[in-house]
Amino acid sequence: MTNSNNKYVRRTIDEFEIQTKYNGVWECVTTEKTMKQAKQRLKEYRENEPQYCHRIKLKRIKLLGKTWSEVKCYLRSQITVDDANIDKKGNCIVDFEVYSDFSIRGKQVVTEHEVTIEIDDDAIVYCNQGTAYIKKDGTRGVSGS
C-alpha cells in the first residue's frame, strides 16, 4: 500500500506460527516475532517430536482496529511522539516509525527523572491519513473526525 507521497507503508505485522500436524490436522503450537526465532523453535520441535511433521507458517496481522494489547509486543520499540501532538494534560498521539500511516492515543507522563509514554491496553490503532477505519465495536469511522 502507498500513502499520498507514493511511499510504501506497511499495514501488517508478520507473525511466524510453528505448526504441528497431529492426527492429520495442522495446529498452531506457538508463535514467534521473527523468522530467526521461528527457525530455532522449529528445530527444537523437530528434535523433541520427530514422529510429527512441523512447519513455519507466516501470518500477516492487520494493524487497523487492533488494540494496544494485541500489538504492543511488536510495536513497543517503534513509538514516536511529536511535541506538537501533546496537549496540556499530557494526552498525545503516538505514531509508529515503520508504520507511518497508523497512530494510537497515549499519555505523556513526566516525572523528576524521566519522561515516559503510557498507552492503555484497550487503546485502538487507527489510520492517521483521514481514511476510513473500523472501531472496536465493529462500526466504521473516519480518522480525524
| Percent in strands | 35-45%
In total, how many domains does the architecture comprise?
Answer: 2
Could you tell me the radius of gyration in angstroms? 19 Å
**Cα end-to-end separation:** 23 Å
Order of helices and strands: EEHEHEEEEEEE
User: Which term fits the overall shape?
Assistant: elongated
Residues in helices, as a percent range: 10-25%
* Averaged pLDDT: 86
Oligomer: single chain
Report the strand count: 10
The low-confidence runs, each spanning 5 or more residues with pLDDT under 50, are none
Protein structure class: alpha+beta
Q: How many helices does DSSP assign?
A: 2
Major β-sheet profile: 5 strands, antiparallel
Explain how this protein is built:
This protein has 145 residues and is of the alpha+beta class. 15% of the residues lie in helices and 40% in strands. The chain has two domains: 12-62; 68-142, no CATH class. The chain has helices at residues 35-48, 68-75, and strands at 12-22, 25-32, 53-62, 79-80, 91-96, 102-110, 115-118, 126-127, 132-134, 140-142. Strand 9 (132-134) and strand 10 (140-142) form a beta hairpin. The mean pLDDT is 86.
